[in-house]
Amino acid sequence: MKKELLLELKNVSAGYSGQNVIHDISLLIDEAEIVALMGPNGAGKSTILKAIFGFITHTGSILYEGEKIYPSPQNLVKMGVAFVPQGRRVFANLTVKENIEIGGFSLNDEIECIRRAEHLMHLFPILSTKQNEYAGALSGGQQQLLSIARGLMTQPKLLLLDEPTLGLSPKVVKEIFKTIKDINEDQKTAILVVEHNLHSLLPITDRAYVLAHGKIVASDTGGAIAGSDILEQVFMGKI
Ligand SMILES: Nc1ncnc2c1ncn2[C@@H]1O[C@H](COP(=O)(O)OP(=O)(O)O)[C@@H](O)[C@H]1O
Ligand SMILES: [Mg+2]
């Protein structure tokens, strides 16, 4: 089956206080695809996600389903994009179930919200067993899964995930990647994921972009990137 183009960035530049930190970024995400965005600290990965979601302004073009868009978080949610930012942001004093349901507040439909939350529990069995516990009592990995589950409540076509495995043990990292793959297969969600766990991520990606100093320096299939020395060069600071 041929996949349709979902999101395209053409020559996008953006930054802070009038100073660009990402330059001329062009990238593509097809529907139901997993795309990785990689690069050292400070390369501009989070800034790209913030520009896509409309947290910061940009120059150049962002196209969604072939049409130029002017991103703002509310519009993006309506269009079917969800953003799970860096850091595990859960409401510690609410239960797991309540945290998930909050992700659907924009639906304005309590019954639909409960239905979706129940469906999501199947994708996240560990959250299902802990649904009445306080989110603050969960482990780091479980809190990360919870913030991803919350992001899925709007049934996005595209999920933006910023460093979902930061600070987690290798075993938990594996679980998070499995969940990402399950979401992609079960819900046909396209996922743009920022990651530093390159070797665990590349096998499940359709495409990967490597970023250095705010510019894309390589793009290819996950396999081709894994087989080249581009990541080593970038992470050693040679590019
Ligand atoms: N809110 C901000 N205000 C000013 N500069 C920022 C802000 N956030 C990030 N930066 C700068 O932008 C550059 C890219 O940062 P970022 O996109 O967070 O990188 P990455 O996610 O790849 O680690 C860095 O030099 C960082 O210091
Ligand atoms: Mg970042």
Automatic annotation (TrEMBL):
Keywords, comma-separated and alphabetical: Amino-acid transport, ATP-binding, Nucleotide-binding, Transport
Domain ABC transporter residues, every copy: 7-238
Biological process according to GO: L-amino acid transport
Sample GO molecular function, one term: branched-chain amino acid transmembrane transporter activity
Sections of the chain in a coiled coil: none
Superkingdom in the source lineage: Bacteria
Record bears the keyword Ion transport: no
Family stated for the protein in its record: Belongs to the ABC transporter superfamily.
Protein name: ABC transporter, ATP-binding protein
Lineage summary: Bacteria, Candidatus Nomuraibacteriota
